[in-house]
Amino acid sequence: MEKLIITAAICGAEVTKEHNPAVPYTVEETAREAKSAYDAGASVIHLHVREDDGTPTQSKARFQECIEAILKLCPDAIVQPSTGGAVGMSDLERLQSTEVTPTPEFATLDCGTLNFGGDEIFVNSDNTIFNFAKIMKERGIKPELEVFDKGMIDIALKADRKGLLVHPLHFDFVLGVQMSATVRDLAFMAGSLPPGSTWTAAGIGRAQFDMAAAAIVMGGHVRVGFEDNLYLEKGVLARSNGELVEKAAKLARLLGREIADPNEARKILGMAPRR
């Protein structure tokens, strides 16, 4: 079985220091959390950014600062900016994260509209998805196809049929929001992909390590981090993203998977080697 890629989603747009004091807001905190995850075995840093007061932003300038700070500490890490941003942001706002210099090698592409809880709706029309895919292709950015249910896989494949994606396709299954975080549903999602695709599983909240363990034995890859879960175990807040990555890496080793370094991850994902 190929080596395991661990992605660390270090802050997200929803969790706050009130939930866990270690959630990063400042540039320095963001770089610190990325380094803790990288040192523990994460190849990919999935990046949202905040203002110093914790307000989510898609500001190009803020992404530039944070990416530079991360790469100063982790020079070969794959930094994956989010184009999801936060509920209510416009498409133009969300795409700012892909306008930094140098152009990101990897970025997320949300593939459907999502009920995010309560009255929050994260809107992604077909035209938004196709436009984001087109822009990423033009800029040479590999999209991670973020899917929260089976229907979103089908929308991603519609974009592929339009010639907007480059193979091999890579998906991130985010389970526990709109689709249940169960092994049954994870297997259904994985079985719905075209041959040659790669995939990562992200379980929300208490499902984080259940989904991680299942993905490890099924040949997928793993996403952990504060964006999805703040606890190392029941009732015990994680002190850093590194602790969550370390737990995922320990699970992988117990289950017989070696951990991929960033350049090995690039090869698995079909991305160009780091120059």
Describe the structure.
This protein is of the alpha/beta class and 275 residues long. The chain has a single domain, classed as Aldolase class I (TIM Barrel). Helix content is 36%, strand content 20%. The protein has 9 helices and 14 strands. The protein has helices spanning 27-40, 60-73, 91-95, 126-139, 150-161, 183-190, 208-218, 241-254, 262-269; strands at 6-9, 44-47, 49-50, 56-57, 78-81, 106-110, 114-117, 120-122, 142-147, 170-175, 198-203, 221-224, 231-233, 236-237. The strands form 4 sheets. Strands 5-2-1-12-11-10-9-6 form an 8-stranded parallel β-sheet, sandwiched between helices. A two-stranded antiparallel sheet has the order 3-4. Strands 7-8 form a two-stranded antiparallel ribbon. Strand 11 (198-203), helix 7 (208-218) and strand 12 form a beta-alpha-beta unit. The longest helix has 14 residues, at 27-40. The radius of gyration is 17 Å and the shape is globular. The protein starts with 5 loop residues before the first strand and ends in a 6-residue tail after the last helix. The mean pLDDT is 96.
Number of helices: 9
Helix content range: 25-40%
Q: How many independent structural domains?
A: 1
Mean pLDDT: 96
**Structural class of the helices, strands and pairings?**
alpha/beta
Q: What's the CATH H-level homologous superfamily?
A: Aldolase class I
